[in-house]
Amino acid sequence: MYTQTGPLDGILDLIKKRGTLGDFLIELFTVSSRADASRSQKHAQAVSKFLGGTTLVDPAAIVNLMYTSRDSFPIPTRKSATPAELKKRSDHMRMARYKLKQWAIGVVEEVIDAEADELMSKDGGLRLPADITWDFLQHFSLESIMSVAKQKSPTLVRLLTAAAIPSKKRTSPSSTVNLSQPLASSSTIIPPSTAITPSMSTAANPTVQPHSSTAADEPLQLFSQPAESGLGHNRRNPFIMIVVTLLMLMNARNLQFTGFQKLMGIWLFANTASSYIYTILGRMGLCVSYTTTHNLLDDLSQSAQDMIRIKALQHAFLLIYDNINCMLRVWDPELGEKDMMDSGTAATFVELEDRDPKMAFDIDTLERARALQKRKSLSFDVLYERVKWDVLHEAMAVHTLGFLVQHVPGLDYIQESLTKKLWTSLAVHRMQQERKTTLYPLATSDHDEGSTGGNQKVIDDLMLRQLHLNKDEAAKMLTIVGGDQATTEKIRTLKCFLDGCPHGYSSYHWVLPLIQLWHMGWADLERILSTHWSKSNVVSDISSFCFVNEKLGRKVKNIKRPDFYPAQALVFDTLHAEVLDCWQEVLKTDNLVLYFEQNSLGLEELIAIAKKIVYNYMSTLGHEKALHSDNSAGLFQPGTSWTNSGPRCLCDQVLSNTVLRMRDSMLHYEFQHAVADGDIGRAMNVMSVWTFTFCGSGKSKYTNELLELSCNFEYEYSDALQEAVLNNWLYIKESLQIATGITKKRGGHQRKKKMIGLKLLAQTMKEHQLHRYRKGRTYNHEACDDFEAGVIALDKTTRIQDFVQRTLTNASNIHGAEDIQMADAGIEDAEYNDEMKELPLPNILRHGVLLSSADMLEIGEDTTEMDAIAA
């Protein structure tokens, strides 16, 4: 290197004789053509070697030295400089740094222009096809868009990244990012620009690279990063914002580049956004207009309909439908005008998997099985033995321990073992973990499925008009049609009325009604509230939900079809507090967290204690022992004497009621957990118990449905049909928010307000000694043991025999004549026709913890984990 002053001055003197240093550089690098005679071979080789990157010092380092040289920009002035001194300063616009910057900006502008054209070209990979389908929406991914953008327009991505993320949060390309941990505010998350700033001295090492070509390679892998945690639940992801900005810029460049904007339009439509919002967001380039969205939906509907009609020919599908209601309010009524309920029917086409439809849905096989009349063998013993009691009690023990794990931070490590236990030794019929259910929404209709005739019109509309099947084709194989209890009841009534029809399609014998589980769970939730509310609305009885509702300031009402979210929250929150109180009673401690800090118990030991809690506090035996006049069995710890001046009894009625409430609530929790976990076998195990509880509580229609289900699975459904029903009764969904990167979020799930309520409830239970035996304690509320009442009704009466006799000649005649008349008159389940205030969503599992969708929406949580849903 030329570091000595003498040789360098000599070279400069030679250059000066021919002109300036700039003239020399122009002559050195200017080449008019390869055949230029003025350019010697030595000259050409030296320039080629230097510009070709084969020398130790590359051109970028030289340009960087020129840019960072202290001679390339004016010398900074002192604050005390006089006007005369300021006039002597050089004009910065004439100096090298400014001109190099302008030149670089111009080059970048040309590069971005070319990259944007490439990105929007037909080969760019981001243009929508002319025949757009729902696949575009289902497979939309901002991560894949970033991948294409980085390939086609890396400079643009790099500039947007630099603008969005400070250099302090960017790491070197060789750094390792832990993708399993949330990004703390001080974390470095993308590679920094290694461009040398004026404060960085490079004179000693001119070979320093001014910028790495891989400086923005890592953002792509960080799309799946968890959102940052914090009290404000900040869900922003800078990479999502970068991609969205890029898509908005491309739309500004070309109005036909509207893939993302169309997706946003459909999302707004799905969330019933006002048309005015389309106008505002469209002005910003975030979505297309309302008219364009509506036209797109028409195109998507047509493409989906074409696809569904092709799939329908294979008969590997089931249909689910229910009524939809919207109140049309007249805000400024004229004479005779009033509010009206606009009713219709919405349906869904679900593609079946895991079974050959020709084998599973063969009508003749089912008819031959029914002709054998094996359902005559249905008895109390058959129904009772359908319950896998060992699995049920073990699952209840796992949930009991799970509540403790959620409460005690030091036991977090156990949750994974509990989840594994439910997935292995306690699994009955789990759905495939990797599977995602394929479903298609069908067109809505104005048919009223609330009547028998209306259901016939709905089925005809779906099968003949929408699926475009002819009657002969539709009647070849069984078709599962799902709905709530009222829907399946009316389908069965329709089949009874048309049983004598000689034509295959018109008899509807090919329709296989299947009650959907969400409504059955809702019915059990209503039963639990009704049984354990206290008929006299005594707010002083801690064993009643009336007391808990008042204590927690909830607004749950003991009515038919209670609001789902509040009712379930009341039941589960009460159960949670009760289970923790039982742990304190068994472990003889007032502080569970402190207890486990001082004592170490293994998993098996904890499971054994949980089983003891289930045995004592969630069983019919525990309920009966609490009704004894003494505590000789020793199941409960003795409490203080009951000294209330009010009514007295010879037992502990409050403790007896509490045991029944815990048992019923934990059964419901196991059902919801099994559904969310994708184990239909465990869910059906609870339903086998519900056969008795529904019967004991007077819910005859659900009892009949479960009796029919027992006959179907015990005697009539082939193995292939059973497998098809079990594998498709639940559907597994993938989160709609995956594309925006709203994924797994660490930290506690429980809300602060709920925790305060649980602490208040736990304190109240402790004060009342709720889970201790106190002879004579009562508030004149006696909860009915619906299970025991159902056992007596099914074992000691002719209920089973009457059902069998009624269905021998026609399997659809599961309800008595009085029930059919009530159904046709629209007396039963009238509440279903009310306008829904909010869309009910299913419960979901997060890291082994069952959460309601209401809780998830409140804390802004979602995930890419599998969620199984009862339709």
TrEMBL record:
InterPro entries: DUF6589
Domain DUF6589 positions: 374-730
Pfam families associated with the record: DUF6589
Top-level taxon: Eukaryota
The protein, known as: DUF6589 domain-containing protein
